Amino acid sequence: MARQSSSNQEPPNDGDFSTTHQDRQRFDWADAYEELSAADKSSTLTVEELELLARAAMLLSRMPDSIEALARAYQVRVDAGETLAAVRNAFWAALQLFNAGDFGQGGGWVGRAHRLLEGSDESAGHAYLFAQDAFRQVVVEGDYVAGRDQAARAVALARRTGEADIVPMALNVQGRALLRLGQIREGMAVLDEAMMEVVGGSITAPAAGVVYCSVIDACDEAFDFRRAQEWTQALSTWCDEQSGMITFTGECLVRRAAIKQFKGEWQEALAEAELACQRLVIADTYAAGMGWYRLGELHRVQGDLDAADQAYRKSVELGDDPQPGLGLLRLAQGKGQAGVTAIQRALDETTEAWKRARLLPAIVDTALATGQVPTARTAADELGAIASDVDMPLLSAIANQAQGAVSLAEGDARKALTLLREAQRTWRDLGAPYEEARARVLMASCCRSIGDEDTANLEQEAARKVFAALGAAVDLRDIDGLTTAAPSHGLTAREMEVMTLLAAGHTNQEIATELFLAVKTIDRHVSNIFTKLGVSSRTAATAFAFKHGLVQAG
């Protein structure tokens, strides 16, 4: 190359779109972009310089500049008869456009690459076409079987022809297709293979960034927290090596913020989420919506409900779906039915199990808070079935907690306690203090329901200390409300509802109709009420309730 960055040695260029791991560690992308952009105004860049400008622009999130440089380099390569290099340029132009949601122009670039190779024997260039076809089938068309097979074909050809970038990129598509087909273990194994290619250092900067972010997203989709944490740390280290880079760093910050929130490091998470939003807005990327959603989640659990509302609104403006966070915010604002309706709407529009699994826990929470136990039961049962299929500790804990909460509302405190204890242990193993504390609050209610006040108080106090340390204002408010509430004599919220109707003279059949429950369920609740109050008849239970303020006369 004729020119080089003022502070770093420019990487060698063989017509490929990027640089190797070794070169990336000593190259400044911002310097390269500024120098080559300036030179382009006063002289004619070589094709290698155009390709370097294109990749520097891509890594600085300047997509229009990258596409323009690639188009010029593409034509030079075509005119020189350098078909493989031209196909590579078309591939990277299409990939950037597809990621930006511009499927029309992206498809046009794919068409150009197809025409270049039309009628020729299978070659290295075809590996790029196979990978692009697989991406379209999986991401755009949802044809996971065809995408899986085409991605495998791309991997095999790329390995035979030495196209190092395509191997992990196609493995990534293949792994994600397997996840969507419900083959979780097989899919994660393929994604691990893709990451081994990345960390091996033989692929290029844009390819590495694409695979890092996509694999972490896949781990999140599969509820594989430990892998997501491991690869996010690796992505963070890799991003630090890319001097001047903007692309991929914002998404890395969002992922880190999510993990820090999960681990209870809320202030650090908030700082990283805010930085991600600033960086992503500057970069004008779709991932900015993810950053604002994460900010909304952090503000919501910390009790800054107005800031959470604004953050969720911003995420919607940027194309992200604010559910289930916005629905849970409505619940915290005392608008529980609005929360149920909003989350249920999102659930009704979702068919894929992994997406439904993100909404169902919030359906359980909001439905229980608004007294819709049958709705909560339906959601908890579906969540349990998905968790059984996925078989990941994180999703199992979520499902057990949901099932436990519903069982408690149905009056089966002992069953609920078993489920919640299992969830609490998993949260502890995963290092999730907030979720563990939420499980402890429910466990306290279970213990209180069966008459074990000492254990109930211990569990409740343990949860309160965690909420106070984290700054979980809404949870603190709720748990303090439990502490100051009038004595319930061990009755659950559902049993209190039954007691109120019983005291008003309703039969079990009438109570069942009023609460949308089976008569057998009401029979069990009434029996539990008699046992807890130490009475043997409806008349005695009613008298006890009025005497001790469980229900109000008149």
Would you kindly provide a written description of the structure presented here, covering whatever features stand out?
The structure is a single chain. It is built from 29 helices and no strands. The relative contact order is 0.05. The longest helix has 18 residues, at 124-141. It has helices at 21-24, 29-42, 47-59, 63-79, 83-99, 103-117, 124-141, 144-161, 166-180, 184-199, 205-221, 225-241, 249-262, 266-283, 288-301, 305-317, 325-332, 336-348, 353-369, 373-390, 393-409, 413-430, 433-449, 453-470, 473-484, 493-503, 508-515, 519-533, 538-547. Mean pLDDT is 89; it is low at 1-26. Among the domains are: 341-484, Alpha Horseshoe (Serine Threonine Protein Phosphatase 5, Tetratricopeptide repeat), CATH 1.25.40.10; 493-547, Orthogonal Bundle (Arc Repressor Mutant, subunit A). α21 (393-409) runs parallel beside α23. The protein has 554 residues and is mainly alpha-helical.
- Uncertain runs: 1-26
* Gross CATH architecture of the domain at 341-484: Alpha Horseshoe
Shape: elongated
> Biggest sheet, in brief?
none
Mean pLDDT: 89
Summarize it.
By secondary structure, the protein is mainly alpha-helical. It contains 29 helices and no strands.
Keywords:
disordered N terminus, 554 residues, elongated, 29 helices, mainly alpha, Arc Repressor Mutant, subunit A, Serine Threonine Protein Phosphatase 5, Tetratricopeptide repeat, 76% helix
Write the layout of secondary structure elements.
Layout lengths: L20 H4 L4 H14 L4 H13 L3 H17 L3 H17 L3 H15 L6 H18 L2 H18 L4 H15 L3 H16 L5 H17 L3 H17 L7 H14 L3 H18 L4 H14 L3 H13 L7 H8 L3 H13 L4 H17 L3 H18 L2 H17 L3 H18 L2 H17 L3 H18 L2 H12 L8 H11 L4 H8 L3 H15 L4 H10 L7
Helix pairs in contact: 2-3, 3-4, 4-5, 5-6, 5-7, 6-7, 7-8, 7-9, 8-9, 9-10, 9-11, 10-11, 11-12, 12-13, 13-14, 13-15, 14-15, 15-16, 15-17, 16-17, 17-18, 17-19, 18-19, 19-20, 19-21, 20-21, 21-22, 21-23, 22-23, 23-24, 24-25, 26-28, 26-29, 27-28
